[in-house]
Amino acid sequence: MNDFDFLLGTWDVANRRRTDFLDPDSGWEEFPALSTASRHFDGAASFDEIEFPTKGFAGRTLRLYDPERGQWSLYWASCRTGTLFPPVAGRFTDGTGIFEGEDTYAGKAVRARFVWKDIRADSARWEQYFSVDEGGTWLLNWTMDLTRRTAVQPA
Q1: Cα separation, 79 vs 91, whole angstroms
Q2: How far apart are CA 117 and CA 110, in angstroms?
Q3: Which of 47, 135, 133 is nearest to 98 (CA)?
Q4: Which burial class, exposed, middle or buried, applies to 67 when counting CB atoms under 10 A from its CB (0-12, 13-18, 19+)?
Q5: Which of 2, 23, 45, 152 has its CA 20 to 30 A from that of 39?
Q6: Which residues contact 71 (CB under 8 A, 6 or more apart)?
Q7: Integer Cα distance of 18 and 150 in angstroms
Q8: Confidence at residue 155, expressed as pLDDT on a 0 to 100 scale
Q9: What 3-state DSSP class applies to 91?
């Protein structure tokens, strides 16, 4: 239930995403972000807000743990749309979290997969994949490499 406790605090985020999430030949763009996460409900809920200063938008993720199913549901909201995107659901196994759900991109039905991996005290990696064939094949279209922002020590 405390799977997302690693995310508590403030992180510098190096983003790399495809210019077209469904085109394996599209180029990549890189840009920074700042993320701050908090823990709630004794670890059964997690919030984070991420700001993309060079892109001019921000988003928030709500993660909720369902003890009956033993899995998390992750909900994303963007300030650009003002709506919650459909959730992805899943769990952590051997230190890697895999979460999947149905969504749309550019008017096309997609299956989305989020992967949390390489989790350490001061770093973590998030990856997003889309599938247009119900999970038969996956295209990596966004990565975030997180580095914990350390507190400035008084002089």
Answers
A1: 27
A2: 22
A3: 135
A4: exposed
A5: 152
A6: 65, 89, 90, 91
A7: 30
A8: 52
A9: strand
- List, as one string, the DSSP characters of 9-74: EEEEEEEEEESSTT-TTS-EEEEEEEEEEEEEGGGTEEEEEEEETTTTEEEEEEEEEETTTTEEEE
**Under 8 Å between Cβ of 34 and 12:** yes
Give the span between the Cα atoms of 100 and 61, in whole angstroms. 15
The residue with tokens 């650009």 is 80
76: CB partners within 8 A, 6+ apart: 59, 60, 61, 84, 85
Q: What is the pLDDT along the chain (155 residues), one digit of tens a residue?
A: 799 999 999 999 999 999 999 999 999 999 999 999 999 999 999 999 999 999 999 999 999 999 999 999 999 999 988 888 999 999 999 999 999 999 999 999 999 999 999 999 999 999 999 999 999 999 999 999 999 997 544 55
Q: Round to whole Å and give the CA distance between 103 and 88.
A: 9
107 class by beta-carbon count within 10 Å (0-12 exposed, 13-18 middle, 19+ buried): exposed
